[in-house]
Amino acid sequence: MGDSKLYTRVKASDILTELNNYEKKPKSSVYRKTILKKIIINMSVGDNEVIMLISQVTKILSDLGPTDSEIKQLCYFYLTNYWRHKQEETLHALPFIVNDYETNKKTSDNDTCLAIRTMASIHIANYLNSLVPILEESLQREISGKIRKTAAYAVAEIFNVNEKRDPESNRRLLMLLNDMLAEEDDASVVSAALSALREITDKSDTLKLSIDSNHAVKLANSLTGCGEWSQVSILSSLLSFISQDLKTAAHLIDTVLPYLQSENSSIVLNALKVVVYLSHYVDNVLDVFPVLPQSISGAVANLLLKPAEIQFLAMRNVILLLLDKPALMDLDIRMFFCQYDDLLYIKDTKLEIIFLLACQENMDMVLAELQEYALEIDVQMVRKSIRAIGNLAVKIDATSDKCVSVLADLISNSIPYVVEEVAIVARDILRKYPGKFDHLTHLLVDRVDLITEPESKTSIIWILGEYSSSISDSIYLLKKYAANMLEEPTETQLALLTAIIKAHVCQPYNKELQGLVENTLKDVTQNTNHPDLRERAYFYWRLLSAKLPNAIDIIKPRLLKLNTETDALSPDVCEELNLCIGTLASIYLRPVSQVFRHVKPDRLVDSPALVHQDLKSPQVRAKVRRSTIRSRSSTTTSQQLGNPSINRSRSSSFKLDEIVKKLSLKK
Amino acid sequence: MIAALFIFSHKGEVLISRIFRAGVRRNVSEVFRIQVISKLSDIKSPVLTLGSTSFLHIRHGSLWIVAVTRDNADASQVLEFLYKFIDLLRGLILLSEKDDSASDRILTDVDVMNNFSAIYEILGRIIDYGHIQDWDLLELKSGLNAKLTKGHGSKKGGRAQAATSSTIKTGSALLSRAASMSRHRSSSLGGILGVGGASIHSGGANGLYNSRAPGIKYKKNEINITVTEQVSLLMSHAGSIVRAFAEGSVNANTKLSGIPVCSFRLIKQREPIIGKYERENRYEYNEDHGKQEPDFTIDTEDDEEVDDDTNTNKEAFEKLNECNFHNCVNLQDFDNDGIVKFVPPDREFELMRYRTDITSLPFIVYVEYDYAGSDRLDFKLRLKTHYSKTITASDVVVRIPIPTGTMHAKINSDSGKAKLLANESTIQWKFKKLVGQRLCELNAAVDSIEGAMISWSKSRPPISIDFTMDNYSTSGYRIEHLKVDEPNLSYRTVKSVKYFSLSKSYEIRM
Q1: Does residue A468 belong to any structural domain of this protein?
Q2: Which chain A residues are within 8 Å of B143, Cβ to Cβ?
Q3: Closest CB from B22, B51, B199 relative to A225
Q4: What is the pLDDT along chain B (510 residues), one digit of tens a residue?
Q5: Chain A residues lying within 8 Å of B507, measured CB to CB
Q6: Do the beta carbons of residue A452 and residue A420 sit within 8 Å?
Q7: Does residue B460 sit in helix, strand or coil?
Q8: Between residues 390 and 429 of chain B, which touch chain A (CB distance below 8 Å)?
Q9: What's the distance, Cα to Cα, between the start and end of chain B in Å?
Q10: Which of A1, A4, A597 sits opposite B113 (nearest CB)?
Q11: Quick check: is A507 in a domain?
């Protein structure tokens, strides 16, 4: 018999009468359990009327709790949800829970944990008073690992509340947690203590978690001995370690590297995070670890076999690395070719990666693939792949011919949305390579009737205005557009006005154009209500009637060179995001403080070993290799030189500290 | 860190709601329902962030499993956990049938409702104040207070339809469903069986993670290893390989006494495979494949082959790069010398997975089609099997997508059974058994309507092939030097290794 038929909304008053009815009957415990389940279900589905039944629930707890663990845990669950609203009544349950802890602490780990967890979730003073001694007891060494883990988390949970109430006991608990870090026999307990401490320090302004190098090495070595989620927690806490020298950092990378092959994607991404983080502290990291690109790429390939959501996350992080440290990866672009049944957001992300990975060498393959997508029936996908082809033409000069010929090929099918999208990308291509691809313009102009969407209309009008002298039909087409000008959206109207004037200043003696300019200006200034448009028309009108000799420089100035590096992230953002691999910020690829307002961003902490190396260009590897011998020999000398200088800088900072202290004392 | 977890039914009703951290309001579930579930048509991302609260969701059949986090949480941890959690529930709730179909089944909302009390208890155990804990399936199962109500679940197939937006319909829906089905199958197995255990004994003398109970004893000591490879291929219409790889999964079933240490190596054996297709070769002779008759002759002993044989020694130690392992394998050992060394848990589990590019394709389809008028289409198909004659593939199904609304087709094939599946708009060509080194032909003339022909010629969904092959590893990887060593009990072990190859998404674009 399942409980699914209990999933109905019930009025609190009905439950109450039901309870009262059954109270008298024999075997009431079975009925009361069912009623309790109904209460919990109503709580789950968000019917908060059941808050009113709190005293009934505590009664069930004290009557049936000791014998039936299921009832006990359901009641606890109820209490942790609703204590805030009924603090008085919640207090009645406290003796029961404390008693529950006392009776079970030697026999059942699960029940003990449950009791501790419940008490820690209820932030009422009396609960905390009873909880603190319990926690102090449970954090002791001889208690089983399971309980100590729960107790460690509980400390983090109550830390902020308790700080105001009783700072002294808080300090004791913190020390106990700190002691747990030093233990060696149970890595999962250490990981729990680490998570708890990290949570406390994240919220606090005064406390800071730092791990020294001995401890970091110990932690990394303990990874083999613990379960998967403890591994995740240990790996991510390694980011609190600030490497002071190259050797420790390199050693840690070496230890963590195998975890890139784990089956658990979270371990993989966290290991990646550690490797990327520590690579900041290893000079010439690719010489020390020539396998690094290969290992990371292997890990990426594995992540792509995971379910869509995880694939998505992994690929966002690939984008991050490609923007900042492409040299760390050696990816096969074919991995990111879309599959027929990929979800839209996966296809999107893959396209982005294909765009980033495309280079002169693989361009044939990439174009063939993108062309394939552009022939699909999914309009969104088609548009995106055409845009990618266009952007590639702008990005890589050497292969722009190939890209444009693919685009030309695509237009020849005369599918409206294809033509529209090509019109949009054509604008940038023509700007980047003036005079090189006039045939593209002609192909577009031939199909100008297919273009209806505003954005691409604006684009084609811009092209007509800019290159009017080389397009034979331009005047005729501009005239045609001008005839319906007032029905267009403002954006198109503005573009059209500018285009007509531009065409005019290029061919000032063309009668037809003169007429068109006059008509348009008249039309716009008299009939439009849009202030921007009217003002611009007046502006042009005056400019033209002033007959300035350099009017053409104002109206049709020489175009600035197109900046193709718009997709790069700023170094600051990259530095911050590198520490956020696998987190939500990596999905948005935006600085943490922009996504989450109250979070303080992590920064790379300066240390003598911190190096700024260029991992930008994928080709850097070859270059570095050539200079290996030289740099190796130089590193040895620089290390000798480096050591004293480290000491010096430390001692000087020490002195500075002392001076500051003295000064403050004098005050 | 997970602040709250919800399970919704497909209609958006809350089935399970558990809040782990203060600071999350109860009504966040309502926010998710309005923002995501009711806007089913366009899911742009599995993550939604509003203010400092984020929702990360996955789908399981018709269910929505949603985790709520605050601030910049570790998304990798949350997503991985959601999948592992569902696998755990499936392992506990669904009836464990021995056959393969059990792992194909998915939970329904009724299963969740029936077991709500147990699910709350499990959540309490595996998430402590939002921190995910290590768990062990068996330990968890034995310690449950709430009773589990076993369920049958439902057959797979909901997801593909629900998730893919309106873009692809008809014949392709079938293809995509097949693909997602196999994807689920592969991902689920590992999850149910191979979840890392809570550490009872941490780190033995050999530094291996060990989750075995002490004192296990078997009369007959056995280790059975099954290597299953799922083969994916995407070949462009010109005949060049866009993608060709195999995803291998090594499952081990051990019945071993004491605390045994097992080890093996995965070695790539390149038997001289006849009629193989080098990636580079394909690239060169692609362009004009449509006109030129492809070379069907069997190139038995070319100079090339000899070259390859001399290369075998070198390739034998070619290390797998794209692989991952169960928690029990010592990753550092594998990293050092390529030995897979582990203390197996006492049950069947997925030991490792790998992905590798393949150079020999078991099946190749050559297709030509002509438009005979505006409403008629002629197909000519050749299916070539490129594996050795001693191996037989079974249940080979070739699906050829044709224009929608086709009612009649004249189909001629020299072997196998071919028929028109009108409601799926495909021609299905089926072989119960198919031996290696064969060439089969099929001719078909399809009558359709003009509009359907045009949309077909624009989209042209790919031809797909399904197959199952015993004793065949497509990638050529084999398990060698399998050793079982129990220092205290020294016994003899019966060892067996089996190989299978299955199609995952084996597609040839038209």
Answers
A1: yes
A2: 110
A3: B199
A4: 899 999 998 888 889 999 888 778 878 888 888 888 777 556 678 888 888 889 999 988 888 899 999 888 899 999 999 999 998 888 888 866 554 444 567 888 888 888 888 899 999 889 988 899 888 877 788 878 788 877 777 765 443 333 333 333 333 333 333 333 333 333 333 333 333 333 333 333 345 566 677 778 888 888 888 999 999 888 887 778 888 888 889 998 888 888 888 888 887 765 544 333 333 333 333 333 433 444 443 343 333 333 333 333 334 445 676 788 887 887 777 777 778 888 888 878 888 888 888 878 888 888 888 887 777 888 888 888 888 888 888 899 999 888 887 878 888 888 888 888 888 888 899 998 888 888 889 988 888 877 777 778 777 788 999 999 888 888 888 888 888 888 788 787 888 888 899 998 888 887
A5: 340
A6: yes
A7: coil
A8: none
A9: 47
A10: A4
A11: yes
* CA-based max dimension of chain B: 78
Nearest CA distance, A235 vs chain B (angstrom): 12
Q: Note whether A227 contacts B196, CB cutoff 8 Å.
A: yes
What is the DSSP track for B294-338?
A: P--S---S-HHHHHHHHHHHHHHTPPP-SEEE-TTB-HHHHHHH-
Which residues of A are less than 8 Å from B114 in CB distance? Answer: 2-4
Cβ-Cβ contacts under 8 Å for B175 (sequence gap 6 or more): A340, A341, B399, B401, B461, B462, B464, B505, B507
Instruction: Give the integer Cα–Cα distance in Å for A3 and B24.
Output: 27
Give B78's Cβ-side CA count (13 Å radius): 29
Residues in chain B closer than 8 A to A375 (CB atoms): 458
Locate the chain A residue with the closest alpha carbon to B28. A46
Please name the residue ranges forming H helices in A166-225. 167-181, 187-203, 213-222
Total structural domains within chain A = 1
Helix, strand or coil, per DSSP, at residue A209: coil
Closest A-chain CA to B110: A4
Domains and CATH numbers, chain B: 4-192 (3.30.450.60), 222-269+315-360+472-508 (2.60.40.1170), 363-468 (2.60.40.1170)
Q: Are A582 and B335 inside 8 Å of each other by CB?
A: no
Report the chain A residue with the minimal C-alpha distance to residue B460: A376
Q: Are A224 and B190 an interchain contact pair (Cβ–Cβ within 8 Å)?
A: no
Which residue in A559, A568, A589, A564 sits closest to A391, CA to CA? Answer: A564
* Residue among A258, A377, A588 minimizing CB distance to B332: A258
Structure letter (DSSP) for residue A470: G
The percent helix, strand, coil of chain B (3-state, each to 5) is 25, 35, 40
A to B CB pairs, distance under 8 Å: 311
- List Cα–Cα distances, A600 to A278, A576, A596, in angstroms: 21, 11, 9
Least Cα separation, residue B173 to chain A (angstroms): 8
The reply to whether A473 falls in a domain is: yes
Q: Would you call A268 and B247 a contact, using CB atoms and an 8 Å cutoff?
A: no
Closest-CA residue of chain B to A297: B322
Judge whether A260 lies within some domain. no
Residues whose CB is less than 8 angstroms from the CB of residue A631 and which lie 6 or more positions away in sequence, other chains included: A284, A287, A624
This prediction has a pTM of 0.72
Residues of A whose CB is below 8 A from B151: 2
Contact criterion met (CB below 8 Å) for A296 and A275: yes
**Contact call for residues B474 and B231 (beta carbons, < 8 A):** yes
Which of B7, B29, B10, B9 minimizes the C-alpha distance to B161? B10
ipTM: 0.84
In chain B, what residues touch A149 (CB-CB under 8 Å)? 128, 133
Largest CA distance in chain A: 108
B199 to A588: CB separation less than 8 angstroms, yes or no? no
Q: Which residue, A373, A364, A466, is CA-closest to A421?
A: A373
- Please give the residue range of the domain that contains residue A467: 435-558
- CA closest to A346 among chain B residues: B45
